[in-house]
C-alpha cells in the first residue's frame, strides 16, 4: 500500500498547532464533554495538546500495517484509493476535533456538543460514498459472517451500506440541534438501528444467494 500523504500532512499539522498552543494553554485543559456539551473530563495541558496527534499517528501506522496481516491482502490493491481516502477522512475528523478542543481551552466559544454530531455525521457521509468500492477484507468495512463468506454478499451489502451510512450521517447531523440526553439517545438509535439493519440485510442476501445455488 502507498503511504497516505494527506493523512500524514494533517497529522504533522496537528503537532504544529499543538506546539503553537502549548504556551497559551492553562495547566489543566478540558478533554471530555458530557451529553449536554459541558466539560467533565480534564488533564494536564501536555496530554491534552498531544494525545490527539499521537492517536492520529497511531491510526496512520495501524492502517499502514493492517493489509500486511490480512489473509485477503490481495484485495487492498483493488480499493487502494478508497482506503487512502478513508484514512485521510479519519485524520481530518480527528484534526477538526483537535482544533476545536484547543480553541475551547484557549477561551474561544466552541459548542462541542453540537460540533461532535456534525463531525461524525459528515464522516459517515464521506465513508458512505466510498463504502461500495471497498473489497472483501477482514479489517475495513461491514464484516459479518455472511459478507466474509461470499463476495457477492459483500458487494451487495456494501452498496446498501453506502446509502445507509449517508442517511445515518444526515440524521446524526440533525441531532446536533437537540441537547442533553435526548441528543445522546437519538445518536445511539441512529447508529444501532443503522448497523443492525445492515447486519440483517447481509444475512438475507446470503440466504438468497444460497437458495440460488441449491
TrEMBL record:
It comes from the Bacteria. InterPro entries: DUF1648, SdpI, SdpI/YhfL. Pfam families: DUF1648 (PF07853), SdpI (PF13630). Residues 10-57 form the DUF1648 domain. GO terms for biological process: response to toxic substance. This is DUF1648 domain-containing protein. It comes from Geobacillus thermocatenulatus.
